[in-house]
Write a structure and sequence with these properties.
By secondary structure, this protein is an alpha/beta fold. The chain is 49% helix and 15% strand. The longest helix has 17 residues. It is globular and about 70 Å long.
Amino acid sequence: MSDSVNIRDLNALVAQKSDFINLITTGMDQTIVGQKHLVQSLLIALLSNGHVLLEGVPGLAKTLAIKTLAQLIDADYSRVQFTPDLLPADVIGTMVYSVQKDQFQVKKGPIFSNFVLADEINRAPAKVQSALLEAMQERQVTIGDTTFQLDEPFLVMATQNPIEQEGTYPLPEAQVDRFLLKVIIGYPTREEERKIIRQNIATEKKKIMALVKPEEILDAQRVVEQIYLDEKIEKYIVDIVFATRYPDEYSLNDLKSMISFGASPRASISLAKASRAYAFLNHRGFVIPEDIRAVCHDVLRHRIGLTYEAEANNITSDEIISTILDRVEVP
């Protein structure tokens, strides 16, 4: 009985604290045509206190999406264009000598924002990628002898261009694993494309007004952490992740030769966090199996290694995840 009371209380709390979700999605819809999945993924990462890796061709409103979200939340936004000559100091900041004061002073880099767009992250060398990923993980930056805590909320959206691979430095698996979600976005529909043209040739541009305060996002993050995750749901998450490591134990023998390595324990944590955020977006105080299935592809697609055999047969990690979801028993 106490459980049902707790769930009722949680539902009431989530309903109260998730009001702003509709405001944000309406605000995003006024600026961005289509790309519902991109907007939803950004909100899931924001509520889970995680980061997003986006893959898509240029011109799909990736920059516009995170910039609009920052404006709607009245938060700081910065954009870093990753290039082969970029240095870690260009991202996190450095010590600069002041002639007037006759001393070194800290000049903070663009990482000191609530929302950071790391555009074409695979264009910069490993040293720069590591500096960014360390800040993402530790939520702090050390410049000289001083350590600075990064502002909250803090969300990094890194983008990768899937078509042009010359002169790129692919992110190592261990670093890709630090992203809560890897989202692949495609082209708009015909109707959406017509709306995009109309919106961009209009003489009067819509002004984006701040609708939510950063404090409300931090409040929501604390509520998301309280969302109820049943033991059966935990077991379901573990089964899905273990099926990527030991497919033969789940009667998935055909996948054994396709997977070179399975998802890490960070995948289980990320599935739990992202499914809680998805439940919150749907104004619910508890996680159901459909929440897991809804976020599973984005959480796992960058955490499963494919063998040469899989690549030769054009098998993708998305197809492997779909097969696992079809075969693993749903609670």
